[in-house]
Amino acid sequence: MGAGAAMQALKMFSGGDQGQQHGGGGGGQNAFIGMAMGQASKLFDEQQSQGKVDPSTDKQSVVNNAAKMAFKMYMKSQASGGGAASGGPGGLMGMASKFLQ
Known about the structure:
- The protein has 101 residues and is mostly helical.
- 71% of the residues lie in helices and 0% in strands.
- The protein has four helices and no strands.
- Helix 1 (2-15) runs antiparallel to helix 4 (89-100) and helix 2 (25-49) packs antiparallel against helix 3 (59-79).
- The longest helix has 25 residues, at 25-49.
């Protein structure tokens, strides 16, 4: 569930659904991770209301996992010079493809 939330956040982030520029420094990183956490929470609530969540799964673990996944995606992109902080769709989609390889 966390990985799905991170990917959904990536789509939102690269598509500019927030109507903001996610440029420079930690702002892009924080925004992206925050989106992943928010999407994880929303996804967990939706799945739980439909009875699709294992009772042993807690919401905080799902949210934490989404944040970890988003952070790894962001850092992997930065380490390889992908430029995800630029907020451009190319940089973010490249980030996803590098992470999923």
